[in-house]
């Protein structure tokens, strides 16, 4: 599985012959790429805040993976009519996306769409992307994109023991999400081998020193390796 961070919460993920793009927002200082550089098969969207869906409308050929309410908003506002299963998906579900399996889990955050109309855009979410369907006998390689979230006990009680991610991308920018200390606790609870900070340094309120995150993870005693990626840098998860 190939993981590539494009700043903020934007990731491209390749599983086999399938390309997925998560939360496309290229107006951030940690990428030199733009929508024209991608041709994803699937577009995974955690929630409707503009710093997560700003460039979603550029990918009309991709199949959208999001909660049904957000799918409806994207169809009305951006013309994105191709939804997984024809209707989107919801929290707790797993869908097959080409060579990948995508499991949706809740995120502790707000949601909203800044337009002149009132929309119900559903619950915010995170995704576990794996190369096998999760289950009691699964030996999948899997990557957890936590979306925008605060620390939540489901990381320890549900995601870690049952979805068993090998790697996690966690927001560390504080102010709107977890900061370095709580993200370090999340790392310990998730019991992952690899962790990547995201959602930081894009705007003044979320400027942080990622060394603090590295130090806090080390202080927990967890075995996870922290990878502070440069923008557009890739990592192979095996």
TrEMBL record:
Keywords: Hydrolase. The keyword Hydrolase applies. This is UPF0173 metal-dependent hydrolase GQS65_14735. Belongs to the UPF0173 family. SMART domains: Lactamase_B. GO terms for molecular function: hydrolase activity. It comes from Halomarina oriensis. It holds the Pfam family Lactamase_B_3. Gene3D superfamilies: Ribonuclease Z/Hydroxyacylglutathione hydrolase-like. HAMAP family: UPF0173. It comes from the Archaea. InterPro entries: Metallo-B-lactamas, RibonucZ/Hydroxyglut_hydro, UPF0173, UPF0173_UPF0282_UlaG_hydrolase. NCBIfam families: PRK00685.1 (NF001911). Residues 7-199 form the Metallo-beta-lactamase domain.
């Amino acid at each position: 599985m190939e993981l590539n961070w494009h700043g903020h919460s934007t990731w491209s993920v390749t599983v086999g012959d399938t390309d997925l793009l998560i939360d496309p927002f290229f107006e951030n200082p940690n990428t030199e790429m733009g929508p024209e550089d991608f041709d994803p098969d699937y577009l995974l969207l955690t929630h409707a805040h503009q710093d997560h869906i700003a460039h979603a409308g550029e990918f009309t050929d991709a199949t959208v993976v999001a909660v049904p309410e957000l799918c409806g908003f994207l169809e009305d506002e951006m013309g994105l009519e191709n939804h997984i299963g024809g209707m989107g998906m919801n929290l707790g579900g797993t869908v097959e996306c080409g060579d990948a399996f995508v499991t949706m889990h809740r995120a502790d955050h707000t949601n909203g769409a800044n337009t002149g109309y009132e929309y119900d855009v559903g619950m915010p979410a995170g995704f576990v992307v794996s190369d096998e369907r999760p289950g009691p006998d699964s030996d999948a390689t899997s990557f957890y994109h936590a979306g925008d979230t605060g620390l939540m006990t489901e990381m320890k009680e549900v995601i870690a023991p049952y979805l068993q991610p090998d790697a996690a991308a966690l927001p560390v920018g504080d102010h709107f999400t977890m900061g370095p200390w709580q993200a370090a606790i999340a790392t310990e609870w998730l019991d992952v081998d690899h962790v990547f900070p995201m959602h930081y340094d894009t705007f003044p309120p979320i400027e942080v020193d990622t060394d603090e995150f590295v130090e806090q993870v080390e202080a927990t005693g967890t075995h996870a390796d922290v990878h502070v990626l440069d923008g557009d840098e890739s990592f192979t998860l095996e």
